[in-house]
Amino acid sequence: MSITVDDRGVSFQEIYQSVEKKAYYQKLITLVSIGGILLYFVFSIIQFDLGSISRKWSPDRASRLFLDTYAHKDHVVMNWKDTSKISVNFEGDYRYQYPSFPEWLERIGDGKDIAILTFNSGSKAIFRDDKIIFEQSKSEDRKFIFGIGNNGKPYAEAYDNDGNEKDLPNWIRVTESKVEVRPSLYERIQIYKRKVEVHRYEFGWKYFWFDFFSPLKDYSLPEALSLIFSNERIEPDKTNFELVFSEISDNEQWMHGTVLFSILETLLMAVLGTLLASLLGLPLAFLAAYNITPFKFVRFSLRRLFDMLRGIDMIIWCLIFVRSFGPGLFTGIFAIAFTDTGTLGKLMSEAIENADNKQQEGVKSTGASTILQHRFGIIPQIMPVFISQSLYYLESNTRGAVILGAMGAGGIGLQLLGAIRTGNDFENVGYMAVLIVLLVTVMDQMSAFLRRFLIGIEKN
Q: What is the model's pLDDT at position 459?
């Protein structure tokens, strides 16, 4: 006997079956969703060959690139045909050749030894006319000898103090054309058929303030700044202030003047683009709100315009404007303005539609015009949201402007891309990355301050 629970005569058994059926379908939907997600991941792994990432990943290369962002290196080169000539170049650039040996490279005139290079770790590379001897400071019981064999190919050998040959460690790689020696990140020796090249790394950004050819290259920054107050000029045709400022600004290696100007361009791009989007988005939002504009066609057209503007990514807009108007700062400004006009317009139109009608009706009861009703009945309600959203997009656009710069809009992004493409200027990449982080941090703090200040005034 079934017991009914309502006037329709539905029994507990029927309710139970209905609940069981719904639970079954919910489980089925969950399992199908999980299966679909798993299939998608499997498809992605196969289609994009994600399994090859681990094979292509080179920790050694990645560590060297990262090392170049915070350290500098000197290249010591000796040609096997004329071992008496040893050149020392900063960062391997032939233009930056030291006129004399640095203190860590000692020339030896006795016997077959030509020079001794001392690494920061205490390890030594001894240059001879027919071989290179490497002695590690931490394992003095063995030494390594590198040279060119009778077959014309480079070789590597390891011996203990008794002259017994030992196996080569895994940080020495021997190929047909080269011997690669990398005992640590800061030490590197390469033996080729025609030459031997030693890389000696040191922590820090050398010649950061004054470049290799500057008359102030041997001065620290405090020492150079103290020259400003000295009456004795370093160069007769310039005051010391002009000299210090120009040498820092025109630094050939670090390009401080160009980089800082590019930072200002990026900031200007973000500020003007966001400002233009805010000035356009707010009035268009009023026209797109159903409680403001009675014309459905106008509302529909503006909403589809907002969809188009924000539906096309900022980078795509940038590429379109680069193609149309050429590279430049205004390309980035318009790309930001177009995208954010669509986003802010949509957000503000929804905020207007959700505004409380009572305030507008109260203003209307005083006999105020429609414009005044909007000004005093709606704008005070949406202004905190408008300010908050505009400042948020300003923060986001500061980061986005860097990417737009690399796409052709100029600014620090273009300088950063140029440094990456060279493959040798990763210390400049690190320098610009630090400036970008500082810029974004400052903009975040300024945005938070303005948000509290402006919204606080609006609430009062």
A: 44
